[in-house]
């Protein structure tokens, strides 16, 4: 089955643009290398600031502030906030348990009890990412020799960690900030493009030989979904206006559901190269498949521009579904001349196609109801100004305003 997807020149351009941004770029100052240099400079700046402030404040072990800043400073603001939260919780819990257990008992038993309690309490409170940090803090407090009152080392440890975290958050937020939500927006656009390619490769194996790059596209789609899941967790910790979290989360969920539907479609077309019953469903079957493939590209374009109000010209998925159902009814009486297996495969394929088509339509319809999606894209555009991979809405070569995807109730 050959797809003749109705891509406009701008959709081709969008696909090329996103893939070029995502791929390994060549040259001395490629995008990934520039980003690496920025991350290195910000990490060095945070570590140096912590060390200088610790000396100014007269902290005994000020290097722990630099260590904390280096550990929590991540590639984007949201991930830095997440790492900072985990380290704060772990340090507070470890300092409290380390001090309490150092007062009672002797080494090594009180140390063993403190570590045991740290892991248990972290698990019960849902702080699993903080449990190891709590244990490290306990080890420093209880095993490192110190002079002075028992409370001095836990207090110094907490102050130093807080200093490192505050500096890391300030550097991440104020110095060339990199927003996880901007990366997630482009990542979701790329995800829908790859899902469209995966869909095309699956249907290439319907009534013909399987596509040679089917496995590679499946792995690429899974990798993008996993990467976007991590970005979504980081983006949830970034401050911003209301509504955008719901929109990004919704699109991420649709991506997961569409991949599951495509996996089911892949299984449905297996061993269909000799089927003849499905040929009677033409041209309705191919029309629906073509519009679905165009729909993946269209959703990617809308995510990239963050505009879901207007629809795509020439795509009418509900009409395609109606035409295919009518064609199925018209050829049902001819099923007696074909094997049961190929009839079942044809029915399974058309059911999966209808499910995928309706999920694509729902992805646009439901996302446009989110307040930030229906009002403007300023939430993303303001962040894009500081992102090396920024998207200028005013640039007509990126993507024209989406238009006319018929809305049916």
Plain-language structure description:
The chain has 409 residues and is an all-alpha fold. It has 2 domains: 31-174, no CATH class; 186-384, Up-down Bundle (Methane Monooxygenase Hydroxylase, Chain G, domain 1), CATH 1.20.58. It is built from 15 helices and no strands. The protein has helices spanning 9-22, 31-57, 63-72, 77-103, 109-124, 131-143, 152-174, 180-204, 214-235, 244-268, 284-305, 317-331, 340-367, 371-375, 378-384. Helix 4 packs across helix 6 (131-143) and helix 4 (77-103) packs antiparallel against helix 7. The two termini are 31 Å apart.
Task: Name the descriptors.
disordered C terminus, single chain, mainly alpha, Methane Monooxygenase Hydroxylase, Chain G, domain 1, 409 residues, 15 helices, elongated, 2 domains
Number of helices: 15
What kind of sheet is the major sheet? none
Number of domains: 2
What string, H for helix and E for strand, traces the elements in order? HHHHHHHHHHHHHHH
Helix content, binned percent: 55-70%
Strand content: under 5%
Structural class by helix and strand composition: mainly alpha
CATH architecture descriptor of the largest domain: Up-down Bundle
Mean pLDDT level: 80
Distance between the termini: 31 Å
CATH topology of the largest domain: Methane Monooxygenase Hydroxylase, Chain G, domain 1
Residue windows where pLDDT falls under 50 for at least 5 positions: 373-409
The total count of strands amounts to 0
Gyration radius from CA atoms, angstroms: 28 Å
Overall geometric form: elongated
Top-tier CATH class of the largest domain: Mainly Alpha
